[in-house]
From TrEMBL:
Keywords: DNA-binding, Transcription, Transcription regulation. PROSITE patterns: HTH_RPIR, SIS. Transmembrane segments: none annotated. It comes from the Bacteria. This is MurR/RpiR family transcriptional regulator. Residues 1-64 form the HTH rpiR-type domain. Residues 111-251 form the SIS domain. Gene3D superfamilies: Glucose-6-phosphate isomerase like protein, domain 1, Winged helix-like DNA-binding domain superfamily/Winged helix DNA-binding domain.
């Protein structure tokens, strides 16, 4: 190993029980090295990347703990539930880490700036994507952004008839294959608006024709787990964009709106 690789290895051995809380960037910052050094170190050990290495270390720590601490006080059912919770948490962490790595900070900054400058932001998604679109539209509204949300392509078609240059259409589509959403995107661009697609990290028509893209990486062989990982990684990605937009006057507007909402929920305040 090189000197840098030995530093990484020593840190992991000394802090194995804390490693699950470290992203590759946080680990790099702690050691004052580049993030790429962490990734290359992981690959040198035979892992696809840092998330796989972190997951393997976490499993080893868990096995070691099980060997040292007797769990006779817990029922088998309670132990199973704890194991399922830990496994799900690790899977979500890996999905969020992989998603973060494929969306570079510059791209997120550009998208946040594009949304901040927009006169109007239109958000649409179908099915489960509709829930993410609605939640994000509500957050933009709290920042003082004029937003239009629909989960029906027909209604959105009518709404974008008033779109102008500089407006933004955010299209949420996990697979990016819905013909109706692709048609909406083309119509919006004809009005000189900007389109931001939110899809999986795959080749798809929606992503190919968007002006900017937010990408999600979340994979699992279990059909009931994969949607959970996608929604978790998607939410974390959108949260990053939202936080980037919270500055200056927008942050003041957000705090004011949250205060108004709190008064509505609790009139005694």
């Amino acid at each position: 190993m090189s000197a840098i690789e030995r530093r990484i290895a020593d840190f992991m051995l000394d802090n194995a029980h804390l490693l699950r809380d470290y992203s590759s960037q946080q680990l790099a910052d702690a050691l004052q090295i580049s993030q790429s050094s962490v990734v290359k170190f992981s690959q040198k050990l035979g892992f696809k990347g840092y998330p796989d290495l972190k997951y393997s270390v976490g499993e080893a720590v868990a096995r070691a703990s099980d060997g040292q601490v007797k769990t006779t006080a817990r029922s088998p059912r309670a132990a199973t539930r704890e194991s399922l919770a830990e496994t799900l948490w690790q899977s979500k962490s890996r999905a969020e880490e992989e998603t973060r790595l494929i969306n570079d900070p510059e791209t997120l900054g550009e998208i946040a700036a594009l949304l901040s400058r927009a006169g109007k932001v239109y958000c649409i998604g179908l099915g489960d994507d509709g829930s993410a679109a609605q939640t994000f539209a509500q957050r933009l509204a709290l920042l003082g952004t004029f937003t239009v949300h629909h989960d029906d392509p027909v209604r959105m078609t009518a709404s974008i008839s008033s779109a102008e240059r500089g407006d933004v259409l955010m299209v949420f589509s996990e697979q990016g294959q819905q013909a109706a959403l692709n048609q909406l995107s083309r119509q919006f661009r004809e009005r000189h608006g900007k389109v931001i697609s939110v899809t999986r990290h795959t080749s798809n028509p929606l992503r190919a024709h968007a002006d900017a893209t937010l990408l999600v990486s979340a994979h699992d062989e279990r059909s009931h787990i994969q949607p959970l990982l996608y929604q978790s990684a998607l939410q974390h990605l959108l949260d990053q964009v939202f936080v980037l937009m919270c500055d200056g006057d927008r942050l003041e507007q957000l705090n004011t709106n949250l205060e108004h909402i709190q008064h509505l929920l609790d009139p005694k305040l």
